[in-house]
Amino acid sequence: MIANLFFCFKSEAAKIGIDINLTLDMFKMEHFTTFMDAIHVMAAQDDGGIKSGLKKNVGHLLKNVMRHIKGQHLLQGKKDKLVKIEEFKTLFDYYKKEIFDGAEYNCIKNRQENLRRPQYLPLDDDVRRLRNYTLTEIAQMDDPYKILDMNEYPRLRDLVVARITLFNTKRGGEPSRLTIKEWNDAKDGVWLAETNKKKAKTSEEIELFEINKLSYQSGKSVCHMLPTLIPKDSCKAIQKLTDPQIRQMTGVNPSNIYVLSSGFLGFKHK
To answer: How does DSSP assign the chain, residue by residue?
Structure first.
């Protein structure tokens, strides 16, 4: 995304006779107007509209990039450059609303007015077909004597993510962040109090307590906890995915704390 912005910036600068060669040139005070123009050009649609989601994401990314640049200047003791990037960020913060507010508003409006309409929701038959497929594939990989290899591990991981995501009607990013500790808590029933079980009045309610595991995950806010139900049909698969021997054989980094790791010596879930 930064690369695309740089090419737009370079193109806009060329129009006014400025030759740009370095990405860091975007973050110079004398180029701020061209920098703003590049953002607008990058997010422009052919029909005159704007790609609101892209523009919004560019804004968040630029904040992180500027913070990283400041950190590098501090680390390298480049005080003059540090002062300049801080001045640029001050100017950026001043014009931020003018640049990005329209995109933020359009994204919120689109979520409220369009994405929740029934015609944009998935068809029941498609959801049922996806459910049946994931359950069938998970069951086929549920051989207690079969050790997962480096190809099968991420496949099982993707199937479990899909199953839990669909079961909870959540965004995929939330179930995929399930940690081993959170899974162990869910497996041990930490979040299900005996008093709540006793309140169950029907056999169906009692069965729900027994077949599903309840996990709580940390959300975007430290104080915000997100409940996630883990269906019984995924528990054996998760036990495989958290098996230390299998994780070692499939290249999962020993320091990786996530249940649904994609493998290949990664520290993160992705």
So the answer is: -HHHHHHHHHHHHHHTT-----GGGGG-GGGHHHHHHHHHHHTB-TTS-B-HHHHHHHHHHHHHHHHHHHHHHHHHT-HHHHHHHHHHHHHHHHHHHHHHHHHHHHHHHHIIIIITSGGGSPPHHHHHHHHHHHHHHHHHT--TTPPP-TTHHHHHHHHHHHHHHHHHT--TTTGGG-BHHHHHHHHTTTT--HHHHHT--SHHHHHHHHH-EEEEEE-SSTT-EEEEEE-HHHHHHHHHHT-HHHHHHTT--TT--BTT---TT-SS--
